[in-house]
Structure formats: C-alpha cells, structure tokens
Amino acid sequence: MEGWTGVATWKWIANDDNCGICRMAFDGCCPDCKLPGDDCPLVWGQCSHVFHMHCIVKWLQSQSTNSPCPMCRQEWKWKAG
Amino acid sequence: MTTPARRRLMRDFKRLQEDPPAGVSGAPSDNNIMLWNAVIFGPHDTPFEDGTFKLTIEFTEEYPNKPPTVRFISKMFHPNVYADGSICLDILQNRWSPTYDVSAILTSIQSLLHDPNPNSPANYEAAQLYRETRREYEKKVAAIVQESWNDDDDEDDDEGEEEENNILNLMELDNVITNLMLPLFQSLLDEPNPNSPANNLAAKLYQENRREYEKKVKVIVEESWIFIGEV
Q1: Does residue A1 fall inside a structural domain?
Q2: A with B: how many residue pairs have Cβ under 8 Å apart?
Q3: Distance from C-alpha of B29 to C-alpha of B176, rounded to nearest angstrom
Q4: Domain assignment present for A63
Q5: Reduced to 3 states, what is the DSSP secondary structure of residue B58?
C-alpha cells in the first residue's frame, strides 16, 4: 500500500432536517453562508427548538420588543452549551 | 441577484408546488419573485363558496423576518378585510413568525374566510351584518362571489383609483390561468367523474370503451401541441 486517503462524514444531531426559518437543510448552511460546519452552527433554545445560529440571531434582532421562539412563541432563551 | 429572501421564496414556491394545499394557489409574477399572485377558492359551506378571489403578496428583502403585505385584488366583503383589500389578520402583523411560508399564509387567509373575527372589524358594515343580520351578510357576499368570476381586466372600470395601482398590471389574466387555476383543475383530468357528464360521448366512452376514450384523448393531446406552436 502506497498511501491512503481518509474520508469522514459529519452530521448535526437535531430533531429536524431543516431550519424552520430559512428552510435550508441543517446539514447545509444558512443562506448567508457558503460552507456548512463550524462557521454556520446550529443553536438550541431552552424550549428545545433548533435553528441556524445566523437565522435566529437575525430574527431576534428584527424584533423590537419581545423575542419569541419562532416555533412555540415562548421567550427565546439560549440553551447553555 | 440571489438574496436570502429570494432563496427562501424559491423554497416556498417549490413547497407550494410539491405539496399544494387544497383550494389555494400562488406563484411569483413573471419577472419579480418578490411579488406573487395568488388565488383562494371560497371554502365549502361558507357564503364565499365557489368564489375565486385573487390576491397579491408583496415581500421585502427582510422576509421571512418581516411578513409580506397581502391584499385582495378581487373585491371582498368580509369583516376583517379593508376597503383597499388589505387584511386584518394577526399572523400578518404582530403574531408573525419567520417559520411561516406562502402556503401557511394562504391557508390562514382561507380559514379567515371560514371564521371571520367580528371583534376586530376592518369593515364595520360587514362585521355588523355578520353579527346581526346574517342573511343580509350572505347576500352581500354572494354579490362579490359573482364579481370574483369577472376578468381582472374589467374589474377596475368602475373604480378609477385602482387603475393607479400598478400591481394590477402585473396581474395578467394569462398568468393567473396558467400558473394559478390549472393546478386546481389538474385533479379533474386525473379522475373524470362520468356521473355528471358535460360531454356525453366522452363520459360514455370513458365508462364503456376505455380504449376508444384513450384514443380520442390522444388526438387532443397531439392537437394541444399544435395550438402552442401557433400561438
């Protein structure tokens, strides 16, 4: 054997396949990014709903007063680590 | 140029085509994906039944973080629809969520036709009649159901102010028929109902001599290509 090439696959572990905001696959990236992975991470709320980080941040910033989870309307609270 | 809003709208369109909700239809206008035309069929068992109500949906680059502006272009008589066609519906205002898409918007408006909310009236007369003289309300609705069948071209004849609205110009009838109406009739081609025949020969052949029926259909399938070529 003269050499070998390693191949790895990865996958976000989320309950859903698509981000509810942009409707793109979680294994892909949000519409503002080009490459999926650590640069376009997923984030969870305490309500257990999950979105692309960039998508939920844009939503929260577009809200002037309250900032509900787009899925369940509970106040959005980041789930720690 | 693709932007997040435009990409999301392409997804919305794809979803609407792959998984079309009953009785509603929508498509981007020919040259602008930010402006959609839509049709809502009046729901069964409501005074709006059989109406074909046309709407426009206008998106901004902030979609889906901001809701689109939705307006009835067909004349409407409903407690929650303003005279200019704009709609008083919480999910299009303060209860908007970025998880909604065109499909969700259209089905929500369809259910608003089903269940008006007379407590937040946009049309006082409609709200009052709805509450107090339901029969009179239904009469008024029946009139706008009839009007909804008229061609869009004639619609603004008696209402000069609407002519200024250039959205109407984009609402070309051809576009409405090909993009919006046809999907609703497609299922009829799939499953003819020979019990209420409009064409006796076709119904008879369909029931008794399927092979002859298919032969005849094949002929008009071929003719349909020639027609397109001539146009």
Answers
A1: no
A2: 37
A3: 9
A4: yes
A5: strand
Task: Convert the pLDDT of each residue in B176-223 to its tens digit.
Answer: 655 666 666 666 777 787 777 788 888 888 888 888 888 888 888 777
CATH number at residue A47: 3.30.40.10
Interval B48-65: pLDDT, tens: 999 999 999 999 999 999
**Residue A2 included in any domain:** no
What digits encode the pLDDT tens for the residues B88-109? 999 999 899 999 999 999 999 9
Q: Per-residue pLDDT averaged across B141-163, rounded? A: 67
Contact assessment for residue A40 and residue A53, using Cβ atoms and an 8 Å cutoff = yes
Residue B3 annotated in active site: no
- Are B97 and A24 inside 8 Å of each other by CB? no
Question: Contacts of residue A32 in chain B, CB cutoff 8 Å?
Answer: 4
Omega of the bond prior to B64 within 30 degrees of 0, cis? yes
Q: Which of A23, A55, A62 sits opposite B66 (nearest CB)?
A: A62
A28 belongs to a structural domain: yes
Our count of domains for chain A comes to 1
What residues of chain A lie within 8 A of the CB of B97, using their CB? 68, 70-71, 73
Proportion of chain B above pLDDT 70, given as a percent: 81
CB of A59 within 8 Å of a chain B CB? The answer is yes
Structural domain boundaries enclosing A54 = 16-81
User: ipTM greater than 0.90, yes or no?
Assistant: no
Q: Which long-range contacts (CB under 8 A, 24 or more apart) does B172-178 make?
A: B172/B30, B175/B27, B175/B29, B175/B30, B175/B37, B176/B37, B176/B39, B176/B54, B176/B152
pTM metric for this prediction: 0.72
**Residue A54 — very low, low, confident or very high, per pLDDT cuts 50/70/90?**
very high
Shortest distance, CA A55 to any CA of chain B (angstroms)? 9
